[in-house]
Amino acid sequence: MTTAIHSASVELRDIHVSFGTLEVLRGVDLKVEQGKTTCVIGPSGSGKSTLLRCVNRLQEPDSGDLLLDGESVIQSDPDKLRQRVGMVFQHFNLFGHRTVLDNITLPLRSVKGLDKEEAAEIARARLADVGLADKAPYRPAALSGGQQQRVAIARALAMDPDVMLFDEATSALDPELVKGVLDLMAGLAERGLTLLVVTHEMGFARSVADEVAFMDRGKVVELGKPEALFDDPQSPRLQRFLSQVL
Ligand code: ADP
Ligand code: MG
Q1: How far is the CA of 23 from the centre of ligand 1 (A)?
Q2: pLDDT at position 246, please?
Q3: Contact indicator for 41, 241 with CB cutoff of 8 Å
Q4: What pLDDT is stored for residue 4 in this prediction?
Q5: Atom of ligand 1 nearest to the CA of 42
Q6: CB of 49 shorter than 6 A to ligand 1
Q7: Cα separation of 242 and 43, whole Å?
Q8: What is the mean pLDDT of the chain?
Q9: Is the beta carbon of 24 within 6 A of some atom in ligand 1?
């Protein structure tokens, strides 16, 4: 890939989120240092997606703070924040009736105010980065799931973010398509983008993450280097979780 990477640290402090009487995040503290990768693992319903959504304020926390590069952005313009914090979803969220190229140029034009040619130039470069330069004129449905997810990644990267969030980015893919997407994510980690990755891919977490956070019932129950978490889990809840997934 050709873009110079700039990245930022991101930190959540004492984040609380409730939906009605359901307390989904119960005081979460988590920091990803600049250029590092943290993987978040944990059972379904433990609050992983809600946590990730708090980082680009798709979910506004009830209380707590969010810092980018050490500066609070909890009160800032959410649209500006989302230019700095890209997100990739399980189900790609591409515009189905638009071409692959348009999927990348439209947000560049509407959010960054680029003209058509500038946007197309960036879009083509990012598509080339993810190995899909030849797919620009197609609709997403003409691509495999893995290719569609790589388009979604290219779209997020085109905004030139400081931090990228991945929410189970490979969970909807056929098994043979998972590796291409994980390899791409590992490449971003290697280039020094700051990544916060919710994943069920324990092999990826072990080999790529600088730190792994285990969430259960709205809290980070255990946090540490992958070897420590996977080989020497301390809490019974993590031990039980790992015995089910490994
Ligand atoms: P995970 O990603 O770990 O599976 P989520 O963050 O998606 O967990 O969800 C945590 C809990 O919050 C679940 O019980 C879920 O049903 C609930 N939840 C998530 N979003 C909402 C919402 N918008 N309204 C009500 N409940 C929600
Ligand atoms: Mg989830």
Answers
A1: 10
A2: 85
A3: yes
A4: 57
A5: 3
A6: yes
A7: 10
A8: 96
A9: yes
Q: How many CB atoms lie within 10 A of CB 49?
A: 20
Closest CA to 199 of 86, 82, 49, 66: 49
Tens of pLDDT along 123-157?
Answer: 999 999 999 999 999 999 999 999 999 999 999 99
Q: How far is the CA of 42 from the centre of ligand 1 (A)?
A: 13
Q: Report ipTM (2 d.p.).
A: 0.98
| Cβ atoms of 79 and 95 closer than 8 Å | no
Return the CATH superfamily for domain 10-92+162-243.
P-loop containing nucleotide triphosphate hydrolases (3.40.50.300)
Percent of the chain with pLDDT over 70: 98
Protein residue whose Cα sits closest to atom 27 of ligand 1: 19
Residue ID of nearest Cα to ligand 1 atom 26: 19
Ligand 1 centroid to residue 5 C-alpha, Å: 33
Helix (H, G, I), strand (E, B) or coil at 5: coil
Give nearest CA residue, ligand 1 atom 20. Answer: 50
**Distance from Cα 49 to the centre of ligand 1, integer Å:** 7
Q: What global pTM score does this model have?
A: 0.97
